[in-house]
Automatic annotation (TrEMBL):
Presence of the UniProt keyword Membrane in the record: yes
Transmembrane segments: 76-95
Organism per entry: Pedobacter endophyticus
Keyword check for Endoplasmic reticulum: no
Lineage, uppermost ranks: Bacteria, Pseudomonadati, Bacteroidota, Sphingobacteriia, Sphingobacteriales
GO MF annotations in UniProt: sigma factor antagonist activity
Top-rank taxon: Bacteria
Record-annotated FecR protein domain positions: 171-268
Keywords associated with the record: Membrane, Transmembrane, Transmembrane helix
Residue ranges of every copy of the Protein FecR C-terminal domain listed in the record: 312-382
Name of the molecule in the record: FecR family protein
Length: 383
């Protein structure tokens, strides 16, 4: 394929006009280049520009999605399934930080091919009296102050006195996800292995406070104008975030030594032990357990919240970090038989709706046989 043909196909891809046959042709063209080959600049142009245009396309699709569609998070970004061709091979392109000999990846067969399905909508709701209710897809539930359709729970904006306010806990297990609408209209997405504490009602003019006990959550906070200017506060084990109406993501899992907050829109203040930082859109703060400092850097916020839209995004992520994320969503355990492979770095985009079998096959295939997996029940060995 000559350079003009390659460029035409790539431009058609970015405009959602690429047919399956044309995409396969473009993918085959990219796959013909070994990881230790020179980037095909004559055919595709500057490598950095190529990658940037692809990431901008992802971000544009996310930003253009109506709020209603985003909240439902299901019927959206199907074209991404064809692969974001940032030099991608198949669903994902994996950039390695080292070179290796080419092997035939198809010669390896994953043992015990029990299909491990992706996570589903499910959670446990703990009421004021300590009773626990199971929430899951296909099962509706009604309480005195909330309704659930099995995919999200919505709280009523009923008038409540201070003496009547109680707190609920929403716990999402490994292999789950759930959505929540607080009584003030704030929308929250909870990822796998996450727990949130919140009041069933808020008072106008009073601080609206919730506690992310652990895990990951994406917030779209209702404007303070509806609550006499009251601010919104999120507490985690390491920090406090003050909000005035914004969109942001917090990641604070129990097995992590850091809390990561990423701002999509608006403004938030991060505080730990008297140290404060203000975040602007597309900035991220990192707070470590044993430090009082707050580290701030520039990020692509759209990539940070891709999980809300049904995607995994990795940019120079270690295989160890990737397996942590996959283990929560698929409720499996990964074990490294070759410890050195924990440090392998990968970049790419994957769909959360795929089975874990499909994802690890993709990683195995695109690693040119350097990474191999073996499934044994709910444990996946990495060789």
């Amino acid at each position: 394929m000559d350079k003009e043909h390659a460029r035409r196909l790539f431009n058609k891809y970015l405009q959602n006009e690429c047919s399956p046959e044309e995409f396969e042709l473009l993918e085959t063209f990219l796959a013909s280049y070994q990881l230790n080959d020179t980037w095909p600049e004559l055919e595709l142009g500057n490598e950095s520009a190529f990658k940037q245009r692809s990431w901008l396309e992802i971000e544009a699709r996310i930003n253009k999605t109506p709020a209603k569609e985003v909240f439902l998070w299901r019927s959206y970004l199907r074209l991404i399934a064809a692969a974001i061709v940032i030099g991608l091979l198949s669903i994902v392109y994996l950039f390695r930080n080292d070179l290796f000999d080419r092997q035939d990846p198809l010669q390896h067969v994953i043992a015990n091919q029990t299909s491990i399905k992706p996570g589903t909508d499910k959670a446990m709701l703990t009421l004021e009296d300590g009773s626990v209710l199971q929430l899951e897809k296909g099962a509706s539930l009604t309480t005195n102050n909330a309704n659930s359709n099995g995919e999200r729970i919505v709280y009523n904006a009923a008038k409540t006195s201070a003496s009547q306010v109680g707190y609920h806990y929403l716990t999402v297990p490994r292999g789950g996800q759930f959505q929540l609408v607080l009584s003030d209209g704030t929308k929250i997405w909870l990822n796998s292995d996450s727990k949130l504490k919140y009041p069933v009602a808020f008072f106008r003019g009073k601080t609206r406070a919730v506690d992310l006990v652990y895990g990951e959550a994406y917030f779209e906070v209702a404007t303070s104008k509806k609550h006499l200017g009251s601010n919104f506060k999120v507490t985690t084990k390491e920090q406090t975030i003050d909000v005035l109406g914004t969109k942001f993501n917090i990641r604070a899992f129990n097995d992590d030594v850091k809390t990561v907050s990423s701002l999509v829109e608006g403004r938030i203040s991060i505080e730990k032990n008297g140290v404060k930082k203000i975040l602007k859109p597309n900035q991220q703060s990192v707070v470590f357990e044993n430090e009082n400092s707050i580290h701030v850097s520039e990020v692509d916020a759209a990539a940070e919240i891709a999980w809300v839209h049904g995607l995994f995004t990795f940019e120079e992520a270690s295989l160890q970090d990737i397996t942590k994320i996959l283990s929560r969503w698929y409720n499996v355990d990964f074990k490294f038989e070759a410890p050195a492979k924990r440090k392998f770095l990968f970049t790419g985009v994957l769909e959360r709706t795929k089975s874990v079998n499909e994802l690890i096959k993709t990683i195995e295939r695109t690693s040119e046989g350097e990474v191999k997996f073996e499934i044994k029940n709910k444990t996946i060995m990495i060789k």
